[in-house]
Amino acid sequence: MANLEKLIIHWVPSTRGARIIWLAIELGLPYEVKQTVKSAPYLKEIHPYGKIPLAEVKYSDGRTVVLEESGHIISYLLRHFDTDKKLSGKTPEEFEEVDFHLHWSEGSLIAEILPLFINKAHKWADSELTTNVFSPHAEEAINYLETVLAKQAAQGNKYIVGDHLTAADIINHLPVAIYVGAKLGPAGPNVQKWLKQIESEKSFQESHKNEGTPPWAS
């Protein structure tokens, strides 16, 4: 079987690309970061969609697997390189929980939060859609995460799944950081404590060292 030679991550600050770097560090993968700009023309020469984050998985036999969409990139890297199930969940139950969060974070959580942030960032007047749809749904999603973390805390755990950092924490960080940092709504004590906890992780600090001040920081 061919070995991984290098993971190339095309990255732009304050985007989902940092989570791929974070995952690579946690998995101990050899990686290279190529800073670019959103929708740079050359990206479509690598993948027809041409958006970031974009990853190139280069193998020792000369093959290159090109991956788009952060959720898909994370899923691929976990399937192929998380051999000890460090980030995937160590039990079948934990695996299912982590897999749920990989879909929930991108399919529900960030979909409710981004419209609120864009509205606030552009200082648009609150619309009926924002007030009646996105705000309550975003708060509902954050409250759900608060419930999950409260249950974990009651068992002495600091993370979303199990007793250690998993891909569930990595993928949920960005939308929660936007929600809390931009003060888009209330966040419970367990969510806020969790956010501080994972941002203190050495791997987080390393993966985000070139991020600068994000646009949602208060």
TrEMBL record:
SUPFAM superfamilies associated with the record: GST C-terminal domain-like, Thioredoxin-like
Domain GST N-terminal intervals: 4-85
Name of one Pfam family that matches: GST_C
InterPro entries: Glutathione-S-Trfase_C_sf, Glutathione_S-Trfase, Glutathione_S-Trfase_N, GST_C, Thioredoxin-like_sf
Domain of life: Eukaryota
Family affiliation: Belongs to the GST superfamily.
Record protein name field: GST N-terminal domain-containing protein
Origin species: Diutina rugosa (Yeast)
